[in-house]
Fold:
Amino acid sequence: MNLKVKVQRARYIDESIHWLNCEVSIDERAMLLELLELLQRKFAPDLAFDRNCRIGMCTSCRVKANGKVVLACQSKINHLIDDQNHLIIIEPAQLNFVVNDLICDPEVIKRIEKEKK
Amino acid sequence: MKEVVIIGGGLAACASAVSLAENGFKVSLYCKSNARYSHSVSARGGMNAAVNHDDIELHYQDTIKSGVGLVKPDKVRQFCQQAPHIIEWLEGLGVNFDVDESKQPRCKPFSGNTIPRARYSGQRTGLKCLTVLIKKAKQLGVTFLERKMVTHLIDSERQIIGIGGFDLVSGTPFEAICDAVVLATGGYAGFFATTTNAVDTTGDGIAIAARAGAMLRDMEMVQFHPLGLQGKGVQIPEPVIGFGGQLLNDKMERFMVRYEPEHLEKVGRDRLSQCIAQEIRATNGTCVWLDLTTVADDKRHLLKEAKQLADVFGDLDIAVDNVPVTPSAHYSMGGIAVDGKNRVLTAEGKLLAGVWAVGECACSELHGANRLGGNSLLEVIWAGRQIFPSMSEYFAQHAGNALVKKSTPQRDGTFGEIFAFESWFQWQEEIKTLMDEYSGVLRHGEGLTLALDQLEHLSRTIKPDSDSVPTSAAPPIIKLICELRNQLLLAQATCFSAMQRKESRGAHCREDFPQLGSTPKHIDVVRRDCEWHLVTPAEAVI
Structure:
């Protein structure tokens, strides 16, 4: 299927936000994590997101997709989009704790803030 | 107060941190991601511990038998004796291991174990252990410095006195000076395309140690899980075989009848993986099929986890569908050569002063040529608990660090700029494909030679002995470059060691040398002048 994708990009150190907009061809049964990996390979090698176990245990790949917080490794793309609108908007799961793009880490943010003082 | 740096964030790292912090050491834990995301959480299976006093001897014998001659019997005995105490210690910290209605321990049947002895905590044994250990470490004042990629050890006067690397938030280099370093970064089986390992399992600590002069041992010994769900990077839990699951080939024949008429599928992980790999090749297939419809009604409730995994990752219903499985790289028995106290050794048989290695990154000689299912979770906790006595003994004889030589990693303005960052992803795929193709379950000298040639070709570009990264690289690219270098270095070490071991033993199956050698020997290698060298027994005085 052809899918329109928007990914929020931001870095804690400069606080600017912009969006990666692109269109990809992907199997609708693919997991959201596969989509993120595809985006990294094809459009933005420096796109930052966490993933590790890929089996729903570590929960590192938690992101917001079309408004819903999900584990990217456990969420099939066809469950996240509707039939009419093949668009997926991917944002960080915790907007207040963005380290880099989709990576959120409250403890790291706290540490950096502490180091600043 | 002695300052210790631990590299890694999983169970071995956190168990070590707790062991040291509760005995008055100042501990900082450096982790390239968040400790809670470590690969340890993927360990759903269980942790072996003797079910009664008599079973300690059986656990010992099972472990010795499984290791096919490459284990250290004294160490294994101590390991098995301590296992029930490790369970008690974890229970004391808050891990609830499953019990039956009469409060007796529930145990899982892993292959190679004479009786079921793997204690578990629901389907989340690793995760539950890690959660309590992180909590305990923080209570004890351990500093967690997460999202820091360590690239090298800093030495001074033949002593390791610190670490250096890159901060993965800002991308800037950092260094930290300390009295001792503990490497607890996990294994290297992630450099196969077909693997059950987490993405971050790139053998970083092993590569770091090798660059600093540490000897690596038995790197060719990689365990393949026989029941990897094809193309998904997750394994179906092995106990399903014990419950009555059967393996079929493309013609729906129960092929294990031909390979193991007596034991059928109930053989060790090494043997079962090798039979499956041979059958896949003989039938020109890509997988074999796990049939769980044969499991008796009174045991079907035990298939909950397999049912869930097959459903989520394969869109399959195990009540009616066969599940496609293929052997998948699962665990690395080889790693950093350590002595009986987990101190890191060099090629000369001396200590790499100031460095310890624990968990899967170390070749602890507990698992030998084939790890017994249920022993890895036990090892990481047990070895972590051993760190304090070992380090305390060391510091009784060594004053600590007096001289400090700074050695900051470089952001090189020119290196790597000529490559598009996309190339690093392609090279990673190339390494993984090579390892699957030529250094997988079934190996042959010709294939290994080909792999070594191609890896050498890649190393001219990737420069695995370097720790500099391009100036323009953002943190995700820095991480990728560092990990890829580590993976390449260890892929070379694995193929080189596999070439040297001219026999078939445990997980290492050489089709051109199918026999088991008469005397068990370690394959020790060392990195010198950007090449791997075999360490002769005369050199290694262990």
In short: The first helix of chain B runs from residue 11 to 21. Chain B is about 35% helix and 20% strand.
